[in-house]
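G., before I forget:
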Amino acid sequence: VSRMSRVPISVAVSGGLAALAFGLIVYTLAQPWGRIGSGDALGAGFVPLITLTGLLVFSLLATREPRRESDELLSKETFGFRIAVVTGLSWAFGYSLDHFGMVVSTPPYLALSLAVWGARGWWRIALVVAGVTLALFIFYVRLFHRLPE
Amino acid sequence: MFETFLGAAFHALTLKNIAAVFVGVIVGDTFSVIPGMEAVQAMAILLPLTLYWDPIFGLAFMVGMYKGGCFGGSFDSILLGTPSNAESAATVLDGRPLALKGQGGKALRMALFSSITGDVFATVVLMLGTSLIAPIALSLGPPEYFGVVLLSFTTISMASSGSSYKALAAACLGLTVSTIGIDPINSVQRYVFGIFALGSGINTIPFVIGLLSVSAIFLELDHQWGGEAFRHETLPEVPGGHRLTFREFLSCAPVLIRGSLIGSIGGILPGHGAAVSAFTSYAINRKLSPNGKYYGTGVLEGVAASQSADSATAGPSLVPLLTLGIPGSGTAAMFAAALIIHGISPGPLLFQQHADIVYGIYVLFAVGVIANLVGGYALRMYAHKIVQLPRQYLFPAVLLMCIFSVYGQNRNALDVYSMLAFGVVGYVLRKALFPLAPMVMAFILGQLFEVPLRQSLLLFNNDLRGFLVHPIAMAFFVAALLVVLLTSSIDWRGLARRWSPSRQGRAVHDE
């Protein structure tokens, strides 16, 4: 068993948050608006330094907590490949909404999303894509005029 | 005042607004029936639409969704035995055994009528609570106001389920995110890192939808492939098992009253929430009822105890928001966002500047009671069909709605990217068992935390001792400290042992 696979996810994430807080504290102190001891000591950097110190302290304390049963161990499968694919697809969809509009972008995005989610049968996917696209087109484009056609 | 109320009621009671409440109830009910989704996520997804509506019309829709969500969650608890949210988890305890006995219909009817009873209490407490607290809130200065906000932060964090450290860390993270952009006092840019889009701060809607809704969808995708896909099981049918007699309902009256009172009180306390109220009501009623020993085996009283308390928190949770500007729950935070995007600041001045809005909310809550009853009855006809919908078709469509809602606000892909980024952050935090409600509430409360603190310090010449001569502010600080000390899951002795130098080298996480 590798060392990584014995670390609970909550410990890894809490540790990551503590590192982030520490990095941001250093960054804040390095900024003209966040320097302690200057005339602006209680200025723009004051509240972020309080909240970041809180984040650092509580994240560190969270790493020391006993592990719960529901707390999985960190592994290669922890943060799924499919979540990365769906995020990437949605990212590309956001871009295509800007350039091609709703009607052109939605069917391919939805069909690919359904496939990633595990939907099977091309006719069923086609039916769902057509139905959902039409419903959302009526709702967001025709009824509320929120999207470019 | 009475004239203002009548005027507001007249303005709120249009056919359009009443229809919005009814549609909202159906949407809230439907969303909360979908396993893995909650009314707060529906409110987050549809919040951007309200931006372009008349404020009262938008609020009518939100009130409906809020009310519908309170009852909708009981379907999953009773029919599936897997609550779709924490609020309806207590309903499983007796609702599921009733369904397994072939009395699922009866349990659902009891849940609906309990929800309506709680709802009536909630509406009355909302009206009385805001009327009593609003004049007091007006007399608070920046130091006292900071005290109230600090107390709210601690109660919200400490009342979250799970680890207190994680809840406090999540609240600090939410506060830190709220500081991105222009500083409210000195107008200096903070944490912008040369990215132009961050100059005006993090947009509330992508943040809320990403953190609450998208992260839940990602987690569902995770479960889908972790072998936890939903399987529908057939429940037994018993002749007459779906009917609830008036006598059966009346026998639960003491439980309903106790549950509604517990829920109403719990709703006013920031962060206490419906889940805590529902379990508290269940535990107290179990002790006080002569049938207490049968709780957990499938008794109607158990369903009434949890469901009445759950629904009774709905109105009172808006009391701290409308009077002090503090959203005491995730759903109240959605109301706060709905008011803020219309340029209406919830808080002490709301009664003076927008009394019509406050009275309009009262009236809409009263309409919501009837809408909840009608919507709940309608939902019983199609809820089992929603429950059986395959998730692999349902969730991509919900994600698509999230994208459209966010994109439609400014027609800017950057909002979609930011929503996805917060979705991933929320998903990682969920996996690490961090509660997300304190983070969302802290983000929305961010300005309320910073501005009174900095104003107070300006008044005190940057001397923190200035707070000492403000007894009301000090009382709130002491109360906040007591909340942390008394309600936290922190094992102070264990902590001291763990951090003592002699134990530094040892591993503390037992596996």
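The radius of gyration of chain A is 23 Å. Chain A touches chain B through 70 residues (CB under 8 Å).

More on Monday.
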